[in-house]
Amino acid sequence: MKQMSLAFVLGLFVLLIGSSAYAQAPGTAVFNSIPSPMPGNVPSQGYQCCGTSELGDEIRLEADTPRRAGNLTVLMSSWSLHSNYLSMPAAGYEHPFTISLYADQASALARSPFATVTQTSVVPWRPEADPTCAGGTAWRASPTQCFNGFAFTLNFDLRHLNLDLPDQFIWGLAFNTNTWGYAPLGVSGPYESLNVGTANVDGAGVPPSVGVDVEPDVAYWNTVHASLYADGGVGGVGVFRPDTNWAGYQPAARLTTFAMPSSTHECKNGAWANLVRADFSPFKNQGACVSYVNTGK
Question: Whole-prediction pTM value?
Answer without folding.
Answer: 0.87
